[in-house]
Amino acid sequence: MNSINTEGLVQPANGFASAEPIEREGNKATETLVAKKLTLLEGVAMIVGTNIGAGVLAIPYASRNSGFLPLFLWLIVIGTITTITMLYVAEASLRTKSHFQLSGLARKYVGKIGSWFIFISIFANSTGALIAYMAGSGRLMNQLFGIPNQFGSLIFAVPAIGILYAGLKAIGKGEKYISITMVALIIVLSLATIFNVNTKIENLMEGQWSYMIPIIYLVVFAYSAQYIVPEIARGFAHKPKQLPKAIVIGMICTFLLLSTVALSVISLAGINEVDEIATITWGRYLGSWAALTANLFALCAMLTSYWGLGGSYFTNIFDQFKLGSETNKLRRLTVLAIISVPPFILAYREMVSFGRALEFAGAVGGVILAIVPILMLRSSRKHGDLTPEWQCNRFITSPMIQTIIVLLYSFAAIYAVCDLLYNIDLLPTSIEEMLISLNVFVPK
Q1: CB burial class (10 A; 0-12, 13-18, 19+) of residue 324?
Q2: Can you say how many angstroms the Cα of residue 260 is from the centroid of all Cα atoms in its chain?
Q3: Helices within 195-287 (DSSP H only)
Q4: Residue 436 above 50 pLDDT?
Q5: Three-state SS letters, 282-341
Q6: What is the model's pTM?
Q7: Max CA-CA distance within the chain?
Q8: Are residues 70 and 209 in contact, defined by beta-carbon separation less than 8 angstroms?
Q9: How far is CA 38 from CA 142, 173, 233, 240, 330, in A?
Q10: What letter does residue 439 receive in the DSSP assignment?
């Protein structure tokens, strides 16, 4: 097992030399990624905070044609599948002595090609998300204070980037306090929704099941915490059994929050009146106090997700390009600039819309995260450094479950890519239209 010194830093362990991102500073060996202890609550909060970001704001609008019930079904199905793939990554992490990010684990167990696929997925998902958070935060600051969108994004960027610079422990603490705040705000808004005269249960019955396909990839994006599993594993090096526990609890909490927001907003406004950023609609129906509360929730959601995805992206860059110790200040500032400046510029110039950024992120990342964790798990069971205290059970690692995961995520990704052709009417927007289109090419 790895040894932990009195400062909570995991010392470098012997492993495969080709995969160890170790550098020498004088006579002292330092590991690229160091670990600081996380509590169970902090680990859960990192998962919830990463998931509850732009997705929770965009999902109700994305389901404006299908309605709440198909959305609820996808939240259950995709949430379960995502949890399983996260547990795959967790076991692979626990079988590895040294600390890697997702791309580093892929390099160790799948090879360089798999590592680059994972890194491309992280790049696509994180960049799309960070653009969306910058654009969305600017719009929300405009709603709250009447300031220009661009200036609002700049204000949001200060704490977002500042906590990333502070590192893993700061992210864990920040996620914990802000996530608790988000839960409190959701409880207040949900109770207010229940007793509002505009709330109608029948609004939840609106929509058509035939339009459920286009929302798959946005739901995939909403459950985006796979990337931070190795990050959390570093924090649980002292208590590895806490890792799967944090994953399951965090994903259940995520499902409850996503479902509650969608249910409350749609039952209040109906699917035809939901804004692209759902909490703006929430505030519009409940009054000025709720507008403030709902938009504060939205800012908290974007902030915690920025920390989760941004922090994972940050350490994956160090890991993938073997940049040496992440504690080096100059390298740290350089990587932070690479992560934060381009999304801010794209949002500032309004070159990428909120919704399209999320579609881009979910489409590219989903299928890679469906396949590579399966390969990583299988390889780590054959070539891992350790036999961990916790392992995935036989049911969730069965060929049937893994086939379902690959097929569903692949279909979601293919559909999302095809959706880029929507403006030239090459993509059907419902199951009926899809069948009609296919009928053209199928002999009778």
Answers
A1: middle
A2: 18
A3: 216-222, 229-235, 242-269, 278-286
A4: no
A5: HHHHHCHHHHHHHHHHHHHHHHHHHHHHHHHHHHHHHHHCCCCCCCCHHHHHHHHHHHHH
A6: 0.80
A7: 76
A8: yes
A9: 36, 9, 9, 11, 26
A10: H
Give the tokens for residue 44: 């859960």
Integer Cα distance of 230 and 214 in angstroms: 30
Q: How far are the Cα atoms of 33, 115, 151, 282, 288 from residue 142, in angstroms, in the given order? A: 38, 40, 9, 16, 14
* Nearby residues of 11 by Cβ (< 8 Å), 6 or more positions away: 2, 3, 4, 5, 31
DSSP code of 95? T
Q: For residues 77 and 426, what is the distance between their CA atoms, to the nearest angstrom?
A: 28
Place of tokens 């661009």: 150
Residue located via tokens 């060996």: 29
Query: Which CATH architecture group holds 30-441?
Result: Up-down Bundle (1.20)
H-helix or E-strand spanning residue 22: strand 22-25
* Residue 370's pLDDT band (cuts 50, 70, 90): confident
How far CA 126 is from CA of 36, 43, 145, 257, 306, in Å, comes to 23, 20, 28, 21, 9
Does residue 195 sit in helix, strand or coil? coil
State which H helix or E strand residue 375 sits in.
Answer: helix 354-383
Element spanning 31, H or E: strand 28-31
Query: Do residues 230 and 109 lie in contact, with contact meaning Cβ atoms separated by under 8 Å?
Result: no
φ, ψ for residue 4 (rounded to 5)?
-120, 125
* 32 has pLDDT over 70: no
Q: Are 262 and 61 in contact (CB under 8 A)?
A: no
Helix intervals (H) in 95-212: 102-109, 112-145, 149-166, 168-194
pLDDT (0 to 100) of residue 21:
37
Q: In DSSP terms, which residues pair with 74 in a beta bridge?
A: none
Residue 376 has pLDDT above 50, yes or no: yes
Tokens of 364: 């590219």
Please return the burial class of 260, using the count of CB atoms within 10 Å of its CB with bins 0-12, 13-18 and 19+: middle
- Amino acid (one-letter) located at 444: K
Q: Give the residue carrying structure tokens 């580093």.
A: 104
Q: Where are the domains of the chain?
A: 30-441
Backbone angles phi, psi at 293, to 5 degrees: -65, -45
Q: Which tokens hold the place of 192?
A: 């207010």
